[in-house]
Design brief:
Elements (H helix, E strand, L loop, with lengths): L1 E3 L5 H12 L4 E5 L8 E4 L5 H13 L6 E4 L14 H29 L2 E6 L3 H4 L5 H21 L4 E6 L14 H10 L8 H12 L10 E2 L5
Parallel strand pairs: 1-2, 1-4, 2-3, 4-5, 5-6, 6-7
Helix pairs in contact: 1-7, 2-3, 3-5
């Protein structure tokens, strides 16, 4: 089964729709009830106990997780010195700790099966060191470091761990960002345009394939840096 976090909107929702449309078993996680054409569950990735309960329930139902896609994420476009502590904490808990917590609970499913795929999400803002996104960039840089190290820890079990770090993708996440700021990011990419959720799904699909079994610990930048 493919488990996707952040399934209520944006890239997470697009991934669930894409894979369920291919006839694959998908479970989308979200913090609140989602009405969708794919199977969903209410679970907050910042709550390790709730994740543990869900992981145990899925195993009891014979629904082991073979692919984990950590698409849940939040952003706040603030300078470091003007980011409220509560906002900074929420960003780090969701983006970094949420990724770690889900891996702790669902990768054991893959270890039992001696096979699996983990796909985390970062952002092109990390290598570009985008001003005004310090805390967001820090949280995603942590995800990239975790991806590289965790890949080494689970490689012996036939599990790959990679990270997709796209430039601006046409989702709700960037709707509130001024066009001029988006254009500044695009101008610093190798491929100077925004990207569609479908392009992200295609990369995730490739990383899940058998042909990608030798790719692990990598960060893939849509747009190039």
């Amino acid at each position: 089964m493919i488990l996707v976090t952040g399934a209520s909107r944006g890239i997470g929702s697009a991934l669930c729709t894409y894979f369920s449309g291919k006839g694959l078993p998908v479970l989308g996680l979200a913090r609140s009830l989602v009405h969708a054409d794919f199977d969903t569950a209410v679970c907050d990735v910042t709550d390790p106990q709730a994740l543990r309960v869900l992981a145990q329930r899925l195993l009891a139902e014979g629904r082991g997780v073979s692919v984990l896609i950590n698409a849940a994420g939040i952003a706040s476009m603030n300078l470091a010195l003007t980011t409220p502590p509560a906002t900074a904490e929420a960003i780090v808990k969701t983006n970094l700790l949420g990724t770690i917590y889900t891996c702790q609970q669902f990768v054991p499913h893959m270890i039992r099966a001696k096979a699996g795929r983990v796909i985390n999400f970062s952002t092109i803002a990390v290598p570009l060191a985008l001003e005004g996104e310090s805390v967001y960039v820090a949280s995603k840089a942590g995800v990239e470091a975790f991806t590289r190290t965790f890949a080494r820890e689970v490689a012996a079990f036939g599990i790959t761990v990679n990270c997709i770090a796209p430039g601006p993708v046409d989702t709700d996440l960037i709707k509130g960002v001024p066009d001029v700021k988006i254009q500044r990011i695009v101008d610093r990419q190798v491929i100077k345009r925004k990207f569609s959720p479908a392009e992200v799904c295609a990369l995730a699909d490739m990383l899940m394939s058998e042909s990608a079994s030798t790719l692990t610990g990598q960060v893939f930048h849509l747009g190039g840096v």
